[in-house]
Amino acid sequence: MEFTANSIAALVNGVVEGDGNVAVNTFAKIEEGKPGAISFLANPKYTHYIYDTKSSIVLVSKDFAAERPVSATLIRVDNPYDTVARLLQIYEQAMAQVPTGVEQPSYVAEGVEIPEEAYVGAFAYIGAGCGLGKGVKIYPQAYIGHNCQIGEGTIIYPGAKIYHGCKIGKNCIIHSGAVIGADGFGFAPQPDGSFEKIPQLGIVEIGDNVEIGANTAIDRSVMGATRIANGVKLDNLIQIAHNVEIGENTAMAAQGGVAGSAKIGKQCMIGGQVGIAGHITVADGTQLGAQCGINRGTKPGDKLLGTPGIPVMEFAKQTVRLKRLGDLFDRVDSIEKELNNRKS
User: Fold this and answer.
1) Whole-prediction pTM value?
2) Residue at 194 is within a domain
3) 216: closest CA among 177, 183, 167?
4) Which of 107, 132, 179, 213 stands the most exposed, by the fewest C-beta atoms within 10 Å?
5) Contact 200, 183 (CB under 8 A)
6) Are residues 167 and 205 in the same domain?
7) 127: domain range?
8) pLDDT (tens digit, 9 = 90+) per residue, 43-64?
């Protein structure tokens, strides 16, 4: 499937600079460009590649100013990164083969209705009392426990496990290996040093347009629900403990962990390997850098780094001071030697 520069510009409200009839049929990174590919330039660090790239078309910002000739056709847009994301979505939809129907062998409990345009892959399991929305895709070896509700257009990829009673909204994506609704980590210490399991009787509720990465685990609550609001994006290998609440359009990168009953606000951005303590509130709009450790609540719009998390500028100052510690110790040692010499 080919698209010309003119047709792409019409889709994205861009302005063509160069040959509008040049055609592309694939995508490529600007540093790995090849004829017939479209690339994009969003990060200034990659600007030097535009002069040598072999890509036929490059998306650039409207204020991009070339310092020397560019052989590729340019399409000027407001935001190249957002634009290429839109084009990738369009391309994926055009190329996708959308499966439908029920493959065998699979297990669908008696009384469960498979709606229009839905798909159930081989070796999938759907328990009694489940409700499936129109166009749901449940890929091979996925497990849907009894009384689960899966919203319209949601995709459950191979090997994902949804425990009993959990609710997932519309147009969600649950990637392979994700586990939704396993027991929360609840144990009561006993006088003899052993632990007695506390029953986890709640569920997990996931809103609309949520994406859950591969091998991410979201635990069911002790009572009530662990709640993931609309638009949340969770990367791979994340642990969300029981009774946690995550607000709308918050994004969390890989290998992070959120302890029980923590509340995370709307539109937060949480970097990789961030740890959040239990029973605290992370306010709306908080940004937490990679490997940040949060042991107390935050204020709206906080930008924190380090463990425990501190404001970014304060963290930067501490980093500079730490780098100077070696010199400081050397100076102190020198002063001590000089003082000792004077005493002697």
Assistant:
1) 0.84
2) yes
3) 177
4) 107
5) yes
6) yes
7) 101-314
8) 999 999 999 999 999 999 999 9
